[in-house]
Design brief:
Largest sheet: 6 strands, mixed
Order of helices and strands: HEHEHHHHHEEEEEEHEEEEHH
Low-confidence stretches: 1-12, 120-126
Shape: globular
Number of strands: 12
Strand order of the largest sheet: 1-2-8-5-10-3
Helix content: 25-40%
Strand content: 15-25%
């Protein structure tokens, strides 16, 4: 039997490295030259992803409602990203959810480890901060917002307002929250908080750090730094909606920068289709001059395909299309 080899160096959490005050990042975190943020072009600071006000989306002014629908349609087709304000989620709840997790990441390591080992009961740290109540309400309000946006996308595609949701599995969808903490980095020009990727799921609602920009979206070959609007959500179209829409809605590359002076915290809420139903271009969006661009694949199959093939997996999915 072969002896398991020891790691060449002990695994140390990034936050611990940052807190230690190291002047240089470990070699394993240094990106290849062509993937470093200092090499890739970035657009002017004047450019931002669309910001859309949802306040009158369900009002009596039909002309204004049509304008909002059109704004979302353009954002989905041309950007794959947009920010929404006046979206119906409580600003106080957004602040509380962010603060709960900020306190968590600044808790002693043994507290964080204990919490990680009891995620369903919220014992210890979670009970003291009221995590269960905050996260339950936060999740409910975000599921409701995602449902509203799914109807808008469905209408914009010329479908019945429930059709996109039904393609996800109706109410039996998958949803999860991922909290991203990016500590200070002594050499931000050499690395990234998250490498370039598109989200494999359906739709992502990101609650960013309003004070520390970091998210960049790829547009026309350039990287655009998103400037968060206070109490806005950043909406990110995922691969599954791109597939269902037969590439009418775009799931685009994005990445996360780090900086040397400030830490950053964001909450990503993933709204995904049921994992065991085939996802393919909807028949209403397929025509002789616009054949289906993607094969049928369950979300579980898609995630496995992407994981096995890495960053090029998405383009390989597109190459699997079969003539109808």
């Amino acid at each position: 039997m072969n002896k398991l080899q020891d790691w060449p160096e002990p695994i140390v959490r990034v936050q611990s490295l940052s807190d230690s005050g190291i002047p240089l990042i470990p070699e394993r975190y240094v990106k290849p030259i062509l993937q470093r943020p200092s090499v890739n072009p970035t657009t002017s600071n004047d450019v931002n992803i669309p910001v859309i006000d949802l306040a009158r989306l369900y009002g009596d002014d039909h002309a204004l409602r049509a304008t909002i629908l059109d704004q979302i349609s353009i954002a989905c087709r041309e950007w794959g990203f947009f920010q929404v304000i006046n979206h119906g989620v409580s600003p106080q709840l957004m602040d509380r959810a962010r603060e709960v997790w900020r306190q968590f990441f600044h808790s002693p390591m043994e507290v964080k480890q204990a919490y990680a080992n009891t995620p369903k009961t919220y014992e210890g740290y979670g009970s003291r901060l009221g995590v269960e109540k905050v996260l339950d309400e936060y999740g409910k309000q975000l599921v409701e917002l995602c449902g509203k946006l799914m109807k808008v996308l469905s209408i914009n595609l010329g479908l019945g307002e429930e059709q996109l949701q039904n393609a996800f599995g109706g109410e039996n969808i998958g949803a999860c929250l991922r909290v991203n903490f990016y500590p200070k980095c002594p050499q931000p020009d050499l690395t990234l908080g998250l490498s370039s990727h598109s989200d494999p799921g359906g739709m992502t609602l990101l609650l960013p750090d309003s004070n520390v920009p970091g998210l960049q979206v790829r547009k026309d070959g350039n990287w655009i730094t998103v400037k968060p609007v206070p109490h806005a959500f950043i909406v990110n179209i995922g691969d599954q909606i791109q597939v269902l829409s037969n590439a009418t809605c775009k799931s685009v590359e994005h990445r996360v920068m780090v900086n040397s002076s400030e830490e950053r915290l964001s909450l990503a809420f993933f709204y995904n289709p049921r994992s065991d139903i085939p996802i393919e271009p909807l028949k209403e969006l397929v025509a002789p001059d616009r054949p289906p661009l993607y094969p049928a694949m369950t979300f579980d199959e898609y995630r496995l395909f992407i994981r096995m093939r890495g960053p090029c997996g998405k383009s390989q999915v597109e190459s699997l299309k079969s003539p109808r």
